[in-house]
Design brief:
This protein is of the alpha+beta class. Helix content is about 45%, strand content about 20%. The protein contains eight helices and six strands, in the order αααβααββαββαβα. Strands 1, 2, 3, 4, 5 and 6 form a six-stranded mixed beta sheet that branches. The longest helix is centred in the middle third of the chain and has 29 residues.
Length: about 250
């Protein structure tokens, strides 16, 4: 608990109580979705999923939320940001081995939990990528180090939480669980975030070298990858070398 971190940000440690509460809420949403779909009310299932992912009751909305909900197609925002990409490993094998409803529950627990961790560390989910997501940290921040630190810790927390909290929770209830996830962190100047699409196929997404690199490196197994550029900023921005990833992330 006394270990120093560069940003001295209290949010770098999350409470197990909050994590477990989020898992339980997501699991209930997933089970309700299965029941609603079985009963023919697909719209009800979709409504509950949207509420779980976008946190309609969240105390604050960010730039990505504004782009998603208020802007017109083509509006874009460019900013220097830290990017975190996370990806579930082995999802194809799980989908082949288990029934669709079982995998559905896994995904409805996994994705909202990852989004919860991002939001808890003041990041914003830019987009969902099948069995993973892309998140951005550092909106309106003046220096790289704090947002990179939070992106790094978010990725580390995701890997740890999946193994020690989410997987045991699902396995105990006879649902499939991800045995591994990967996470990649990079930073980029002028990352572009935009609302894009046509007709009903509309989403908010991010573009830029940092997004591509982080996404490619999220293919590792239970490993958090940090780019050389991000690592350099964390160590050398102020020349004091105080960046130390936390060993205690959950309390």
């Amino acid at each position: 608990m006394s270990e120093r971190v560069a940003s001295k940000d209290d949010k770098l440690i999350l409470r197990r109580k909050d994590i477990r509460q989020q898992i339980a809420q997501s699991f209930a949403t997933a089970m309700n979705g299965v029941a609603a779909q079985t009963g023919g009310s697909i719209k009800l299932a979709e409504s509950r999923l949207r509420q779980a992912l976008h946190r309609d009751h969240a105390p604050r909305a960010g730039l990505v939320s504004d782009l998603r909900n208020k802007s017109r197609i083509g509006v874009n925002h460019k900013e220097d940001l830290a990017i975190l990409a996370v990806d579930m490993r082995g999802s194809t094998a799980l989908a082949e081995k288990h029934k669709a409803d079982k995998v559905f529950v896994l995904m409805q627990c996994f994705i909202p939990l990852m989004a919860f961790i991002v939001q808890a560390l003041d990041g914003e989910v830019v987009g969902l990528r099948g069995d993973g997501l892309i998140a951005a940290f550092g909106f309106a921040e003046k220096t790289w180090r704090p947002c990179l630190n939070r992106a790094y810790e978010a990725g580390a927390i995701m890997i740890e939480v999946n193994g020690v909290e989410l997987a045991p929770f699902l396995i105990e209830r006879n649902f499939p669980a991800a045995t591994a996830i990967g996470a990649g962190v990079d930073c980029g100047r002028r990352v572009t975030i935009t609302k894009i699409g046509l007709g009903d196929a509309i989403e908010v997404t991010a573009y830029g070298a940092a997004v591509n690199t982080a996404a490619k490196k999220s293919k590792l197994v239970n490993t958090l990858w940090l780019s050389a550029t991000a690592n350099s900023w964390l160590h050398d921005e102020e020349g004091d070398g105080t960046f130390t990833p936390k060993r205690t992330r959950l309390i």
